[in-house]
Amino acid sequence: MEILLICVCGMSTSMLAEKMKQAAEERSYQINIEANVADNATDIVPDYDVVLLAPQVSHKEEEIEKIVAQYEDVELGVIDSLAYGQLDGEAVLKQALNLVD
């Protein structure tokens, strides 16, 4: 599974991606998790199964939804703001997994 976290500049989202990777490794899940900026979404969304928007870019959800809608196997969600603020990698990983179930 491939998970993409979309944000504004990537610093805190990169930290969250690392926490998610740790949670995935603890469960022996084979998951690739990357963080990238919203401006790159058009080019990179097709490479992922799940796209999660950081709360600070949730205003771009409609724009990103149009990109995601072009690919039937890509799911989109907005990261829970509490889990994001706490860098709760396990909670955000569960959110991503729930989107594909």
From TrEMBL:
Report the Gene3D superfamilies cross-referenced here: 3.40.50.2300
* Every PTS EIIB type-3 domain range: 1-101
Query: Which Gene Ontology terms cover its molecular function?
Result: kinase activity; protein-N(PI)-phosphohistidine-sugar phosphotransferase activity
Keyword terms of this UniProt record? Kinase, Phosphoprotein, Phosphotransferase system, Sugar transport, Transferase, Transport
- The modified positions for Phosphocysteine read 7
UniProt-listed InterPro entries = PTS_EIIB-like_sf, PTS_EIIB_2/3, PTS_EIIB_3, PTS_sugar-specific_EIIB
Signal sequence coordinates: none
Gene Ontology biological process terms, A to Z: phosphoenolpyruvate-dependent sugar phosphotransferase system
- PANTHER family per the UniProt record, alphabetical: PTS SYSTEM N,N'-DIACETYLCHITOBIOSE-SPECIFIC EIIB COMPONENT (PTHR34581)
Q: What is this protein called?
A: PTS system cellobiose-specific IIB component
